[in-house]
């Protein structure tokens, strides 16, 4: 349906292309859900008189506005209808992820010459917010590929490496992710033990070790690895002697240890342990400087955390909309739920918290330079606040729906389970406390 793999977001053609795409989608049959027809996909914030004055804040340019419109249409027609089933069966919708390549979304932040859209952090936030509204698990796989792999390469690789790896990753022909965490080292990331040793006789590195919890680690149920991974490994005696490598599917000794099943949430996103058994990696696959990957890692963690915070916004907005709908429909004691103070409190408090998180996220996104470093405090802060906010709002939604909230058909129990991951992946709440306290302690008084 997205004919000819058109790059809809080249800087020159993005606006007309998005409009074309939006028209294309408009003729499609409407999706009907069990509870809500998603007519409520309209922004919850349109009910706020303040919202019109904040238009430019949430959509800094016309391109961003068009991008959101196109995403809403795509999410409504393509993402929403499959979310429940892929969660139930714990399976991964790889063809749908590849479609995001056709739409230009897999290379949002990549330069045009490698097939990307050359857009910014606000576009990243917007895409994650919208995809997560219907399917946070699908969005997590999108994040692992488009930010942890693609954006990292786009920011840190040489032009030759970008020309080798990015076009297929941006088109969706190759799908992969990033390997940082290990079975025995997560928060303590510099405690990693996966190592790579250079054999100078043939200019090839030998990598040995394991990476744990790797999103998109396998795309076929655990038989083989994903296509391409950015992998961090120890390359020297100091704790910070870490180098990043591109590891490609079918390199000898690179295989899946196990696919991790039965996760609490994010069940439609594949997670795997990856094993490196003396994997020979050519020197041309070293990204950045040898022993210099910690800076790249920290820089990419900023946009990762902002993307995860944006996912939390999608979860919260959906949960509020489900509560709004249900409060209209459900009657008790001869009244709608809207008439009960505790339900009013659940919905209004959730709205205020969602708007606070949304403003924090867009305030950071609108000024984040993807090639810079130094926004750690607020990247941690947005994720810390929004992850907990989304889980709390989804929890209120379950409560407001009573027994119906407790079953999959009404979506909010899935959103609540998915929200929990945002308190762990990309940094635990405790690691955000640790980092933020360090930065606040060092920094000047707040103004
Ligand atoms: C579904 C899923 C997908 C993931 N995808 C990826 C991926 O694609 N790539 C990747 O590299 N990783 C991925 N991860 C890993 C994730 O980033 C780690 O789980 C996370 O960083 C925490 O590490 P850990 O699980 O080893 O827990 P640990 O670091 O062992 O933490 C255990 C507990 O101790 C606490 N703790 C640890 N150190 C401190 C401290 N100094 N102060 C206070 N408390 C502390 C933690 O906050 C936590 O509560 C994924 C995880 C999940 C569950």
UniProtKB/TrEMBL annotation:
Provide the cofactor list for this protein. FAD
What GO MF annotations does this protein's record show? 3-methylbutanoyl-CoA dehydrogenase activity; flavin adenine dinucleotide binding
Decide whether keyword Oxidoreductase is in the record: yes
What PROSITE patterns has UniProt attached to this entry? ACYL_COA_DH_1, ACYL_COA_DH_2
- Pfam families annotated for this entry? Acyl-CoA_dh_1, Acyl-CoA_dh_M, Acyl-CoA_dh_N
GO BP, one annotated term: L-leucine catabolic process
- Residue ranges of the Acyl-CoA dehydrogenase/oxidase N-terminal domain? 61-173
Question: Record's PANTHER family?
Answer: ACYL-COA DEHYDROGENASE, ISOVALERYL-COA DEHYDROGENASE, MITOCHONDRIAL-RELATED
Family statement drawn from the similarity comment of this UniProt entry: Belongs to the acyl-CoA dehydrogenase family.
Q: What is this protein called?
A: Isovaleryl-CoA dehydrogenase
Q: Which organism is it from?
A: Nitzschia inconspicua
